[in-house]
Design goal:
The chain is an alpha+beta fold. It has three helices and six strands; from the N terminus they run ββαααββββ. It is about 20% helix and about 35% strand. The chain has a six-stranded mixed beta sheet.
Amino acid sequence: MVTTRKTNIPCEVFFGTKNSYLDKILVTRSCWNHVFQNPTKRQSRLEKLERALCFPLALTLLRRTRTYQEFSKEKDRGGNTYLSVAVIGYVAGSRMKVVLKQLDSKDFVLFSFYQLSPKLI
């Protein structure tokens, strides 16, 4: 069974910096809206099912990783500036990318997750 209700995912990506309190990742409704209800992308049920099944792999990647690969400042449609951090790695033979977003608050929020390569058998 795939569990989709997770809060405060432990993550050591930011451990050791002066902001060491950033060791928990929040999952909000905006993540689910971005992943499953995008009007132009991922319209088929198969694509949505693939995304739902790779959610546990994304959580495993966040728990295991100690570094991030991409870091940038971006603006959303409302003109708000936020930090975007991407974690890329292999979990169970699949290459995954997890994108975290930090708004004005100090908490990082899970923004997106997806599988970059199919599972290798």
